From TrEMBL:
The keyword Lyase applies. The gene is nnrD. PANTHER family: ATP-DEPENDENT (S)-NAD(P)H-HYDRATE DEHYDRATASE, ATP-DEPENDENT (S)-NAD(P)H-HYDRATE DEHYDRATASE FAMILY MEMBER. Belongs to the NnrE/AIBP family. In the N-terminal section; belongs to the NnrE/AIBP family. This is Bifunctional NAD(P)H-hydrate repair enzyme. One of its GO terms (molecular function) is NAD(P)HX epimerase activity. K(+) binds at N73, D135, S171. Bifunctional enzyme that catalyzes the epimerization of the S- and R-forms of NAD(P)HX and the dehydration of the S-form of NAD(P)HX at the expense of ADP, which is converted to AMP. This allows the repair of both epimers of NAD(P)HX, a damaged form of NAD(P)H that is a result of enzymatic or heat-dependent hydration. Catalyzes the dehydration of the S-form of NAD(P)HX at the expense of ADP, which is converted to AMP. Together with NAD(P)HX epimerase, which catalyzes the epimerization of the S- and R-forms, the enzyme allows the repair of both epimers of NAD(P)HX, a damaged form of NAD(P)H that is a result of enzymatic or heat-dependent hydration. Binds 1 potassium ion per subunit.
Length: 511
């Protein structure tokens, strides 16, 4: 295997930007306060930033209802409401009886709002008429699931049928984990303060946060040094970091040989999709080991592939030896054929240290019969497969996706791609990558097989396991977005992704 994609040298600058959790935001806040004074000053800036965001996205709004909670998130809301009054808008604060301000700065901001003749209404089951709602109920201080009365208020916000601007966090959602333990606001837009939160971009986060804005509240850059990042976010712009133009004198041997293994009776399409994706993502040679019955249709679709029948496991030993990367799992099944291929392939890859990409039933077989993996293996579980690999249930995985991906990487000593909205990629002990691309049109059978082929192809082209997985998950998601742009998300097929992979795999180099 020789390099045709770029693995960054150790210490080289990485693409993307950092994402944080509540503890990190508290550390940034503490550094900012130590440096530049009062909590009320930051709160003023937060509320003013909220007002500017509201004006720039909803300039016609006149009736503004701000739902304030008991902490400093509520304080931001009082500042915004005061600004709205000063601009001649009709601004009302709504709150639950027990949610009178409890912190010093939020009490001060509430008093300023009342001094400006601001009106505060107790929530009695219905919200006043509004052009826009501002959610200033809870931010990073959310400490438990909302109780019955709070859930009724959140439900009223979600049912109002007007845009919702959330301040810092959509109330009820964990900005750390990307899940909610009970009722949670579904915002049209969320204005984050100081630094972006990981939980707004994975799992249930995007559905609750809506569009994202950020205001750093004028805090000095050095204050961010105190904060520990939770993930590195990459989007379509970052593909060029890895997918650089090929050397002019490249030859097919420069781009590696991928062996795709899978396709038991009834699931031959899966390995066909993986092979097609590997070809379109730039592998030099793609070989497929599958059931004999699938060979003719596979060659009709992909004459560029080399194909071996695997009715007899020893028949493909030569292909195992020749492969630079082995993708095992698409359509493999868990019958005797799949079992035999799984054992044979893992033995051969372990003996020769061949890079592996394991997906689908290869992951289920691994979970059922745990064994060590050769160094640099990549696992691509969806949340259900991830649950089996962690001996837990899918809800537990989705409750804390960042924790799950870190635990999987540590448990299997492998690079793990935890698929789904806000896909996370993590190497053992590493900082997870957050893939900021992809769409729900991709929730269609066979999409994961395409991802397997893409990652195997990038690995074959010289990226190390972590970077092949991160870049591969990004390329796959960007292709999903590009394919969805032509005719929408519903009805998107894995083949549509393969059709646009080439266009996405050759990004314009950064100037
Ligand atoms: N970081 C910064 O630099 C800046 C931060 N700023 C703002 O401050 C926000 C953080 O403020 P915060 O710490 O006061 O927490 P916040 O989110 O208002 O909630 C805590 C209150 O809610 C309560 N409570 C919690 N869960 C509850 C539940 N389920 N049901 C009912 N009650 C519940 C909790 O009660 P307790 O748990 O103590 O009983 C407590 O009273 C941050 O998100 C940002 O908007 C900006 O002003 C400036 C810059
Ligand atoms: N809501 C979503 N948003 C973004 N990407 C998604 C979403 N749903 C699914 N995907 C992506 O589509 C692919 C589905 O893979 P998988 O669940 O393994 O499907 P299959 O097993 O049917 O091939 C994954 O790459 C996943 O990240
Ligand atoms: K909020």
């Amino acid at each position: 295997m020789s390099a045709s994609c770029a693995t960054p040298a150790p210490g080289a600058s990485l693409p993307g930007s950092l994402l944080y959790d509540a503890a990190a935001l508290r550390a940034i806040e503490a550094a900012a306060l130590a440096h530049a004074g009062e909590a009320t000053a930051l709160m003023q800036r937060a509320g003013q930033a909220g007002w500017r965001t509201l004006l720039s996205h909803w300039p016609q709004a006149r009736r503004i209802v701000v739902v304030c909670g008991p902490g400093n998130n509520g304080g931001d809301g009082y500042v915004l409401a005061t600004q709205a009054l000063a601009s001649g808008c009709d601004a009302v604060v709504v709150r639950l009886e027990p949610h009178a301000p409890r912190t010093e700065p939020s009490r001060a901001m509430c008093a300023a709002f009342e001094a400006a003749s601001g009106r505060i209404e107790a929530f009695g089951g219905a919200l006043p008429p509004a052009d826009i709602l501002v959610d200033a109920l809870f931010g990073i201080g959310l400490s438990r699931a909302p109780d019955h009365a709070t859930a009724a208020l959140i439900d009223a916000i979600n049912a109002a049928g007007v845009p919702v601007l959330a301040l810092d966090t959509p109330s009820g959602l964990s900005g750390d984990r990307g899940s909610a333990d009970g009722a949670a606001v579904r915002a049209t837009r969320t204005l984050q303060f100081l630094a972006p939160q990981l939980g707004l971009q994975t799992g249930d986060g995007p559905d609750h946060a809506g569009a994202l804005s950020l205001d750093v509240l004028g805090v000095d850059a050095h204050c961010f040094e105190a904060a520990q990042a939770q993930a590195r976010r990459i989007d379509a712009q970052d593909l060029a970091h890895w997918l650089q133009p090929r050397p002019r004198n490249a030859h097919k041997g420069s781009h590696g040989r991928v062996l795709c293994i899978g396709g038991d009776h009834g699931t031959g399409g899966a390995v066909m999709l993986a092979a097609g994706a590997a070809l379109r993502a730039g592998a030099g040679l793609v070989e497929v080991a599958t059931q004999g019955v699938h060979i003719a249709p596979l060659l009709a679709r992909w004459p560029e592939a080399m194909v071996r029948r695997t009715d007899n496991v020893s028949a493909f030993a030569g292909a195992l030896d020749a492969a630079d990367v082995i993708a095992l799992g698409p359509g493999l099944g868990q019958g005797s054929w799949g079992h035999a291929l799984f054992d044979e392939t893992l033995d051969a890859a372990s003996a020769a240290d061949t890079p592996l990409v394991l997906d689908a039933d290869a992951l289920n077989l691994l979970a059922a019969r745990p064994r060590g993996l050769p160094a640099g293996a990549v696992l691509t579980p969806h949340p259900g497969e991830a649950a089996r690999l962690l001996e837990t249930d899918t809800a537990t995985v989705q409750h804390d996706r960042p924790d799950a991906v870190r635990a999987l990487a540590a448990r299997w000593n492998a690079v793990v791609v935890l698929k789904g909205a806000g896909t996370l990629v993590c190497a053992p002990g590493g900082l997870p990558w957050l893939i900021a691309a992809g769409n729900p049109g991709m929730a269609t059978g066979g999409m994961g097989d395409v991802l397997t082929g893409v990652i195997a192809a990038l690995r074959a082209q010289g990226l190390d396991a972590e970077h092949a997985a991160a870049c591969g998950a990004l390329l796959h998601a960007v292709a999903g977005d590009r394919a969805a742009r032509t005719a929408g998300e519903r009805g998107l097929l894995p083949g549509d992704l393969i059709d646009v992979l080439r266009a996405c795999a050759n990004p314009e180099p950064h100037p």
